[in-house]
Amino acid sequence: MKRRTLLTSSAMALGLAATMGTAALAQDEPLKVGFIYVGPVGDFGWTTAHDVGRLAAVEHFGDSLETVFVESVPEGADSGRVMTQMALSGADMIFATSFGYGPEINAVAQRFPDIAFEHATGYLQEAPNVSLYNARFYEGRAVIGHIAARMTESNVVGYIASFPIPEVIMGINAAYLAAKAANPDIEFRVVWAYTWFDPAQEAAAAEALIEQGADIIMQHTDSTAPLTVAQEHGALAFGQASDMSSFAPDVHLTAIEDNWAPYYIRRIQERMDGTWEADNVWLGIPDGEVVLSPFNDRIPADVQEEANAMIAAITDGSFHPFTGPINRQDGSTWLAEGETAPDGDLLGMDFYVEGMTGEIPN
Amino acid sequence: MLRLEKRPNPSQFWNYATPVVAVLLTMVAGGILFWVLGKNPFEAIKLIFWDPLFSEQFAAYSRPQLLIKAGPLILIAVGLAIGFRAGIWNIGAEGQYIIGALCAAQMALWFYPAELWIVFPLMILAGAFGGWLWAMIPAVLKTRFNTNEILVSLLLVYVAEKILAAAATGFMRNPEGSGFPGSRNIFNYSAASNQELIANSGLHWGVVAAFIAVIFAYVLLHRHLLGFHVQLAGQAPRAAKFAGVAPARLVLLCLGISGLMAGLAGMFEVAGPARLITIDFNSGYGFTAIIVAFLGRLHPIGIVLAGLLLALTYIGGELAQFMLNLPSAAIQVFQGMLLFFLLALDVLSNYRLRLMRPAPVTAPAPKPSTESV
Fold first, then answer.
1. What single-letter DSSP state applies at residue B294?
2. Residue ranges of the domains in chain A?
3. From the candidates A8, A54, A70, which should be mutated to test the interface with B, based on the most B CB atoms within 10 A?
4. What gap in Å lies between CA A85 and CA A67, rounded to an integer?
5. By C-alpha distance, which of A54, A57, A88 is closest to A71?
6. For testing the chain A interface, which of B157, B322, B323 should be mutated: the one with the most A CBs within 10 Å?
7. Per the CB < 8 Å rule, is A103 touching B284?
8. pLDDT, position B99
9. Which CATH class is domain A137-250+291-347?
10. pLDDT per position as a tens digit, A129-156
11. Mind telling me how many Å the CA of A41 is from chain B's nearest CA?
12. Which of A19, A70, B158, B298 could, after both became Cys, cross-link B81 (CB 3.0–4.6 A)?
């Protein structure tokens, strides 16, 4: 699938913790790290965010690190070939930044046991040198859900969803729960675009939602097109993966930014020190991996304050966006009073929470 | 002023030489492009054309990859070329490829996990049938309602993509994949797996099928009456009518063959290199094959060479990207140049450039003349 955002399932993790065969590398040779991107580095969204992380690592390590990358690598057999060629060229570590690279990473990793493989948003670990990493984007979704609920006048939020998979459903639910808590009259309209990146289709979805009365647009797709449409119609919107404010300066309220730099720097350092181990991590706002872009001045001061308080509460662990009581859409109980959602439930989420209208397509 | 004038007898030599010259010109122009980007042009060209084949570091791996990448391109392009020669434009091979793969995958999943030898042959039939069926839609619409097959076949690609997404996230989803999209790994299901026939050769059943298709197309086009009809319909539709060629039959046949071959390519891909059905299982083979067909002069042997050449630019292009930090757009421009030069040289080999004298209107002072204008 076009990239990524599928989450690691702790149940799937094999609990592998094999230290890399090769110990710390000689100091005089730079560590060679390869990156495989699913889109162009200039997509202003998902891939741009990963490349910003790569550049931060380059700056951090200077001459002791050499990075290479290939952009717009299709998922499937092509990605396996690129990874193999990178491995043959002497890479010590490879970051593959899209969900669909999973089967290939595991196949290539078995051929090159001395190379450390890092897979973003994947779930397969069939070799001891495959590590998984992902971000808790839903924490950011809760924050923008709250902002949306406090700023809408029509009480209708338009949501451009990509594919009906747990990651996306989790995002809708997180945003909706936070929105409903702030404004009980809120209503979400969801359009399933069945694409991660298709500016024309995303723009059409945004138009349709605005026509249906939505005055705020949220997106779980990667292009800047919905923002541009919102700007034209005077609706409000949120950016995705990177700060997209330059595309719609008046209506871009904030964006859920993916900040991979801390993770990349830490893991590369571990590989240099010879302490790298396969892992399976799911980091979020507390770790600085999910960041809200600077708020637009249009957000009233009190709403900004509430949003910042929410971020602070997520950071110190006192607030979890999925805290009971929460019922499923069909009225059955999901989380009891005070209970927080186990990661396994979130990673397999295939239902709307109570209050959401419409159906998840199947 | 320049004018194009059709050459009465285009040179046979240039018909075969233009692809070679186009490749050379692409190397020169591409070299300049890479040089402008601040890279060593000789190194870049060497990485793209030489290293995948001969470098010690990469060749052992990338030579077989050449077959894996070229296999589906050749298989699809050969089918398309038959239709293109008859003036029947199937632009939707990408969709037929998807549907073929879906039908084959569904066949495999029905049998899973039974280890029966019949599974693989049934998948081949299912893949061929799926591709054929998807191509029959534009074919029947054209013959019954005179719709334009270019539009219908192209638009059906998008329909096929939606079905693919629905399959990967819904009815074909791996029940053991904890809710993640994507089917079971068909490559790992040995009764359905399209393995390499000789280890590390890149030779799988899809490549074999491609070569069989090439021979089949060669015989059909050059040794069979039907091939004559195909060519006639493309070059002189009126004459074809007089010769008793039924246009409707030809449409059904040409779209059917190209759809079938695209479906087969999808089948071999999903059971082999692609391993499973995913939301973005298709990676543009159906569209790239159109370029391969034209680059190969719509000739089966030419298509083999063109398929291998294009596969080489993909594999070498990836190499150049990460060895020299070239942007992928530069490689795409490079591939685009190849087609551009080929088409440009085609024009020159079929037409003559004539320098025309400026039209009399622009002459400074018209001379008084006794003759009427």
1. H
2. 31-135+259-283, 137-250+291-347
3. A70
4. 14
5. A54
6. B322
7. no
8. 98
9. alpha beta
10. 999 999 999 999 999 999 999 999 999 9
11. 9
12. B298
Q: By a Cβ cutoff of 8 Å, what residues of chain B touch chain A?
A: 57-58, 61-62, 65, 68-69, 162, 165-166, 168-170, 177-182, 185, 269, 273-276, 278-281, 283-284, 314-315, 318-319, 321-323, 325, 327-329
Contact between chains at A165 and B169 (C-beta distance less than 8 A): yes
Q: What are phi and psi of B359, to 5 degrees?
A: -60, 145
Residues of B in contact with A99 (CB under 8 A): 180
For residue A72, the chain B residues in CB contact (below 8 A) are 328
Q: How far is CA B222 from CA A18, B9, B255, B330, in A?
A: 61, 21, 19, 39
Interval B259-297: pLDDT, tens? 999 999 999 999 999 999 998 898 889 999 998 998 888
Chain A closest-CA separation from residue B161 CA (Å): 9
Whether residue B350 has pLDDT greater than 80: yes
Task: Please give the structure tokens belonging to residue B274.
Answer: 């692609």
**Distance between B313 CA and the closest CA of chain A, angstroms:** 13
Contact: A89, B58; criterion CB under 8 Å: yes
Q: Are B160 and B103 in contact (CB under 8 A)?
A: no
Name the CATH architecture for the domain at A31-135+259-283.
3-Layer(aba) Sandwich (3.40)
Give the pTM.
Answer: 0.86
CA distance linking residue B315 with residue A174, whole number of Å = 43
Q: At how many degrees (to 10) do helices B285-295 and B247-271 cross?
A: 120
Residue A136 burial by Cβ neighbours in a 10 Å radius (0-12, 13-18, 19+): buried
Produce one character per residue of B310-331: b if its CB has 16 or more CB atoms within 10 Å, e if not. bbbbbbbbbbbbbbbebbbebb
CB B95 within 8 A of CB B160: yes
| pLDDT at residue B354 in the model | 82
Question: How far is residue A31's CA from residue A136's CA, in Å, rounded to a whole number?
Answer: 29
CATH 1.10.3470 fits B40-325, yes or no: yes
